[in-house]
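Here's what a typical entry looks like (Molecular chaperone DnaJ):
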Amino acid sequence: MSLILPLLAALAAMLAVGWAFSRMERRNAAQSARWALGVGGVLLGVLLTVRGLAVLGAPMIAAALGLLGVALRGGRRRGGDDGAEGGGERTRTQSSRGGMSVREAREVLGVGPDAGEDEIRAAYRTLMKQVHPDAGGTDALAARVREAYDVLTKAK
């Protein structure tokens, strides 16, 4: 009977945290998770170390400090490419997976900076007929052409 109340409290806390995370933007939720896990990991590691389990506590503290270091940098990679090395066109549209810049997308489709939506669509269709896996191309080439089309249509 003495375990029921702490278990219910832990369940309520998990539900509250889950609800709070579901209301956040993805980037903010990831940053909050880094802070929470970092602080919690340091505290648990110190507790384990003080209780005589330094074999478990010390690595936990090290991992938690790593999470806190990433949280302090704002989740950015050290020396990461933010895509701002030349002109306004170098901004990334899909930064989560290394995305393609507008300039790269124009090069892939072979269209100029002043290309309209119809010209972009025509270039996409022509190129896709050549690189589609059913026409002897590869999935990777078709995906790259599709990504270039998506980048340019979202940029307009």
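Confidence is low (pLDDT under 50) at residues 80-97.

More examples are in the samples folder.
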